[in-house]
Amino acid sequence: MTAVAILGSGIVGTAAAWDMNRRGHKVVVADASLAAATSAGDIANAEPLQIDATNERELRAFLGEVDLVVSGVPYRFGVPVAQAAVETGTHYLDFGGNPTIVRRQLDLDEAATAAGVTVVPDCGLAPGMANVLAVGVAGALGNDEIDELRLRVGALPAHPVGTLGYQRVFNPVGLINEYAEPCEVLHNGEFATEEPLTGVEHIDWEPLGRLEAFHTAGGSSSLPKIFAGKVAELDYKTLRFPGHSAPFRAMLELGLFDEAAQTGTGIAPREVLLEALSEHLPAGGDDLVLVRVWARRGGQTTGYEIVDRNDERFSALARTTAFPATALAHLILDGRAEPGARSMDGAMTAHDLIAELEPVGIQIDEFSPQPKPPED
Question: Structure pTM?
Answer without folding.
Answer: 0.93
